[in-house]
Amino acid sequence: MKRIIVSILVICFSLGECEHEARAQVPPKMEAQQIKQPLLDLFAKPKLTTEKAKLEEALILKAIADDPSAQIALANIYENDNQQKRALFWYQQAVEHGGIDEENAILKFSQQKLAQSNDPKDIFMWTKYAAEHGDISAQEKTMEYYRRGQEVKKNHIEAEKWLRKLISHEAKKPTFKLVELQLDTINSDREKNIPSAIALAKKLAESGSVDAAYFLGWLHQFGSLLDKDITKAIYWYKKAAELADIRAYRSLGWIYHSHYSDNKAAAHWYEKSANLEDQVSQFNLAVLYHLGTGVDKNLKKASQLYKAAADAGHNSAKVNLANMYENGIGVSKNKELAKQYYASYLHIYPANKKRESQLNIEPATDTIKLSINPASVKRYNMLSLYQRSGIYSHSIDISNLPIIENQWVYLTFVDIPEIGFYSLFQGTKDNLFYGVHIDSMPFDFVRYDM
C-alpha cells in the first residue's frame, strides 16, 4: 500500500497541472522539483533504520493522505532541522487542509527566513511574501521598498496599494497612525481625506493621544492644513503637556516668549522640558537666567544649563559657554575649556566667524550633517526636506553654504514638526531628483550621504 501511495504521488507531481499548483503556492525561488524532494529523498533510502526516520516515514504516509496534524508535525521537524523549503511546503499543505490558519503558518516561516537572511534581495522577497500573507509590519516595509526603490524599481502605484492595505487594517481600531496614513503624500485620496483625518486627530487627542494633540497644536501654530490660531495651538499643546510631552513644553515656551513676550511663562515651560534634557530648552532657559529675563539673573545657573546643552550638541550653547570660561563669567576662568568649546563651535561655522555670545531665545531647530560631492553643488544646488504627511517642506540653496573639510555641509531647519517620517531631496529648483529617507526624529547632526 505504501509503495502504491508513493507511486501515485510521484506520478501526480510529474503532471504539469500539479506542478503548476505547487509552484504557485511558494515564493518564486522554490521550484517544483524542490517541492517533491521531501518525499522522493525519503523513499529513495534502501532501508529506514533510525527512530527519527521511521517517525518521518509514518508522518509522510499520513501527510500525503491529507492528515493536517501530520503535515504540521512534518513542518515542525523540517523547520527544526533548518530544512526551510520542506517546512514551508508542509505548512502550506496544512493550511490547505485546515490544520492551521494561513497567517500563523506562513508568517511563522517567512519571519524566520527574514531573521536568517543577510541578502537584501532575499530580505525583500521574504518581506513581501510575509506582507502578502497579512503581516502588518511587513506590509509597511514593503510599501517603503516601493516608495524608495530599494531592491525593487521605485513604484508609487505599488506603494499606494500597500498603503491602502495598511489603512484598511488601521481603520479597524484607529490610532494616530491612521491619521498619518490618510495624509501620506503617496495617497491619491489625500486631499479628500484631510477633513476626516483632522476629525480623527481631534477625537484621539481628546481621548489621550499625545501625538494627536501635539500634531493639532503644530498645525494651528503654523497654519498648515488648519487656520493659524495661537489660542487653539496653546489648547492642544497643553493637552499634550498634560502627558509630559517634551515637544509641547518647548513649543509652549516659544509661544509665550515670541507671541506674548511673557518670559515668566516661557521659563515655566522651558524648565519642564529642560529637566527632561531637551537641549533647545536648556539653552533658552540659560539665556533667560543669563539676562535675568522672566527669572532672577543667575549666571551660575546659566552656565550649568549652557554646559548641559553644549555637551548634548547645541551649537549656540558651545560659544556662550566658551565665552563664560574665557572671561570667568558664572564659572572660574579656564582657557583650556574655553578653547575646547570654541573648537567644537567652529567645527560647523567658518573659522573667521565672530565668537560672540548668542543671547536670543531660539526656536526649535534640527540640523542635518550631510556628506556631499562639492562638484555637484553648482549644478544641483537645492536641497529640500519634506514631511511625508505633507504638512512641512523647506528648501535650502546650498551653493553658498560652507563646505567643511571638503565634504560636509550642515543644514539647519527651524520649527520642524517632530512627528512622522521625512525625505530629503537634492536637485534644482524645478527638478528634485535624488533623495534619502529619514526614519527617526529628532535628527540633530545625523549623517546622511547624498
From TrEMBL:
InterPro entries listed in its UniProt record: Sel1-like, Sel1_AlgK, TPR-like_helical_dom_sf
Cited SUPFAM superfamilies: HCP-like
Protein's recorded name: Sel1 repeat family protein
Species, as recorded: Pseudoalteromonas rhizosphaerae
Organism taxonomic ancestry: Bacteria, Pseudomonadati, Pseudomonadota, Gammaproteobacteria, Alteromonadales
